Every structure is written in structure tokens, then in C-alpha cells.
Amino acid sequence: MQTLRPREWLNDEIINAYSGLSFNSIDRNYNMKLVSTFFYPALRKAISVPDDIDYAAVQKWDLLRNNYDQDHIFIPLHTNQHHWSLAIISGVRAYVAAYPHGGKSCITITTLDSLASASAESQNQRIFLHFNMVLA
Q1: pTM for the full model?
Q2: Which Gene Ontology terms describe the biological processes this protein takes part in (predicted)?
Q3: Which of 12, 32, 40, 57 could form a disulfide with 46 if both were Cys (CB 3.0 to 4.6 A apart)?
Q4: Options 2.60.120, 3.10.310, 1.20.120, 3.30.310; which CATH number does 2-133 get?
């Protein structure tokens, strides 16, 4: 509870608790998955050596297994000691449905970063990170 005091940084447990409560209040007409804050550090560590990717380290997170029917997957990102952002993977279900039939669909990865947005806004710039990933 120390991290809820004024001028304190939010830690992973507070982010997990708040995002979990928020996520549970969302309309369930969409198929969505919220990933723990512990996933991204495990992923970064697993891919830190390009020629020796540790698949077992992230396999336990079960991000894609049984999640092919998800409309959106939300991943909290702790990008440095004091900053949180959010990655949203969209289109997994549409891609999986279109793939066997030769259809065109892509998985979209969007990041939401309030500090980058505020910095860009103060410099009269627009920033919105958006990636399309087409898997073959």
C-alpha cells in the first residue's frame, strides 16, 4: 500500500489489481485477455539473446495457446523504473479465421503511452504508435 501514497510510483501489484478490477467491469461481448505485468519482463529476458531465445520462460504465460478466439489481448508494459504503458494486440481471431482460407487479415499491435503523447503534444507533434503485423 506504500505505492498508493502521494508522490510514490505504482508498482506491478497495484497495476495488476487495478487493471484486473477495471477489466472485470468491461462488457463481455468482446473476447479479451488481460496479461499480468510479469509477462513483459519475462518476455524481454527470454529474447535478450537473439540466437538463444528461451521459449520455455514465456511458454508458461500461455499468451497465445487457447487465445486464438480473442479480439484483443492487453499487455501492461513496465518500460523503465518509473513508467507504465499498454500494448494491445488486436485481430488475432480474425487472422486465425482467415488464414486457412487464404484470406487477408492482419494482427494489429497498438501501444498507449501517456508520457510519449504528452511530450509530443507539448512540442505540437502527434504520436500514436501503431503496427500491423501480417504473419505468413
Answers
A1: 0.68
A2: protein desumoylation; proteolysis
A3: 57
A4: 3.30.310
